[in-house]
Amino acid sequence: MNRKQMRHILDVIADMFPDAHCELHHSNPFELTIAVLLSAQCTDETVNKVTATLFQKYKRPEDYIAVPLEELEQDIRRIGLYRNKAKHIQKLCQVLLDQYGGEVPQEHGKLTELPGVGRKTANVVVSNAFGVPAIAVDTHVERVSKRLGAAKPDDTVLEVEKQLMKLVPQEEWTQTHHRLIFFGRYHCKAQNPQCDVCPLLDVCKEGKRRMKDGKNRKTS
């Protein structure tokens, strides 16, 4: 894929989801970091239900480490992998207090050194909390990128990110991340993508194959 083809995809998705944004509820960088950490293998909707009460109880890093681990586990038990995530949260909060005065660092490299924070989480935090252009590749971004041909089917998550960074203007990285997520979450779904009404069907090999298979099943 070249940049001209990517431009077409970006413009179409922008028309479909002009108001795409981070759907994780938060009011500061610290809350966003906790929310993204909780969102691994879990829907944003579930995370928002949990953090609605969690963020009222825990305001600062000190609050998370002032309670027994078991209490924090119970507070987030509706989240998948809640035991591991509770441990990561308490370790992360301790590091923030020990090394950063209780504040979330703005540097990508320092973020990825925090317990439970990987490259995707760091990208979400720097772009949404600190305004640094970044493309975080979650399951939706990866799926859509591969279906539309912006990345190869066997590309790793990092390779998908690098490919998108080449194809998308840097000032559009963060907005593109949100729009690709919305496109994948609400239109190009994993199980039942809306290929029959997709304005990008002409450039989507996956969609054409699905439509062809569907017609073949109907006529056989």
UniProtKB/TrEMBL annotation:
A Pfam family hit: EndIII_4Fe-2S
UniProt-listed CDD domains: ENDO3c
Q: Does the keyword Cytoplasm apply?
A: no
Enzyme category, top tier: lyase
Keywords (alphabetical) are: 4Fe-4S, DNA damage, DNA repair, DNA-binding, Endonuclease, Glycosidase, Hydrolase, Iron, Iron-sulfur, Lyase, Metal-binding, Nuclease
Catalyses which reaction(s): 2'-deoxyribonucleotide-(2'-deoxyribose 5'-phosphate)-2'-deoxyribonucleotide-DNA = a 3'-end 2'-deoxyribonucleotide-(2,3-dehydro-2,3-deoxyribose 5'-phosphate)-DNA + a 5'-end 5'-phospho-2'-deoxyribonucleoside-DNA + H(+)
**Domain annotation HhH-GPD: ranges:** 38-186
Assigned protein family = Belongs to the Nth/MutY family.
Q: Which NCBIfam families match?
A: nth
Put simply, this protein is called Endonuclease III
Tell me what gene encodes this.
Answer: nth
